Amino acid sequence: MRLGPNYFKLFFASAVSNIGDGIGAVAYPWLASALTRNPLLIAFVAVVQRLPWLVFSLPAGAITDRHDRKKLMVGANAARAILTAGVAVAVYSLGTDLASPDQLDDPGLVIDTNTALYLAVLAAALLLGFAEVLYDNTAQTFMPSVVEPEQLEKANGRLWSVEEVTNTFGGPVLGALLLSVSFALPFGIDAITFAVSAALIAWIRPKSRQGTASPVDVMQEDATQEAAEPTSMRAEVAEGFRWLWKHELLRPLALILGLLNMIGALTFSTLVLFAQEVLETSPTEFALLNTGGAVGGIVGGWTASWVSKKLGSGPSLWMTLVLGGATSIVNGLTSEWLVVWAMFGIFMFGAVVWNVITVSLRQAIIPDELLGRVNSVYRFFAWGSMPLGALIGGVMIALAEGPLGRETALRLPFLVAGVANFALLVVAAPRLTSARIDGARAEAEAKA
């Protein structure tokens, strides 16, 4: 069965916006490193980017279930286009005298215009984070209105593959090229990608049971809502929270993923400093560093269904923790960016397999009327831990730099993350088994 034209509109919308995300993945940290060498200030940009996942995930789920999902996705990407265009203007007007990172000796901020630009970047990162939370939560609940239930793993796998190609290969390389022309140009192109993505999503015509309802469905729904007692957003969020917390599989899965993401955030928040000072990368090499993840992500996305069938769903998830631990330790010990490139590819293969299996599982077993709220509670636990991890990573380097030296301090988060992944595997393995995953699917199918 073909995935259909609506799926491919969503597919290309995601590809375009992820090119922009990939550009931003290079442009934002490189800009921050041109403003400061302080690991805490660098990490704080990542903290601010991820903070909305902690404070906005739960209400975003209720908003997703209350409103037209397609319109929410269009609005979120339109907002991101406007905000990113604002960053481009701020960088163009305030960043004319920016130094290259290797010219910055002061570990603090360069005063005057650079301080204003740093604050502007923080404000934009926070607002973009809120839009990202709303968009990502809505996008995951939107997929069942685009494809049939039996197509979810295939559809999600293809989507994850193109997102990896554009986000960690095409986008970063393009971002590095644009940075060589102007600090402002990457942000301007990023804004355009969000606008194009919003237009493509607006063109989708989802099935009437979800997303955009038929006129008759809308009239019936409006009449039902008028007759029913109004419910508060807090009550709706609480309903989603109770559903997830009572679920014997999704509760531990969300908590384990939260710990896994917090461990990963230890390293990504100051990756730009590690790349520049330990690996000695140029902007282009820093961009190419992420293409290893793209290769691994492509393989993971296209083979996730096969891997899950061959190994079983549970062992496939355990594999992610093993690969995460091993690759983090190697990264912490090497000084060659090509080695890190390869480790990123191996790690991302496991991460995408995890995502395809778990996202498809949630889409299959959570009732549609609760999908937005339960998904947001899940991601509150899974992603809300990331700002804490990013902050810990920055503090770890700042505290270790004195007694251990700058280079060892920059390596430390990777080594700690590697050990933590293996410790988490001991906790996760008995809770995430193939039998429990298959049982949850069967129970949901029996209730449908």
Could you name the key traits of this structure?
448 residues; mainly alpha; Growth Hormone, Chain: A; 19 helices; 82% helix
Write the H/E string, N to C. HHHHHHHHHHHHHHHHHHH
CATH hierarchy, class: Mainly Alpha
Distinct helical segment count: 19
Assign the CATH superfamily. Answer: MFS general substrate transporter like domains
Number of individual domains = 1
* Biggest pleated sheet: none
Distance between the termini: 22 Å
Class computed from helices, strands and strand pairing: mainly alpha
- Helix percent reads over 70%
Describe the structure.
The protein is globular and about 60 Å long. It is mainly α. Mean pLDDT is 84; it is low at 101-112 and 209-230. The protein has helices spanning 5-35, 39-55, 57-66, 69-94, 113-142, 152-181, 185-202, 215-227, 233-246, 250-268, 271-277, 283-289, 291-311, 313-333, 337-365, 368-384, 386-404, 406-428, 434-447. Helix 4 (69-94) runs antiparallel to helix 5 (113-142) and helix 12 (283-289) packs across helix 15. It contains 19 helices and no strands. It has a single domain, classed as Up-down Bundle (Growth Hormone, Chain: A).
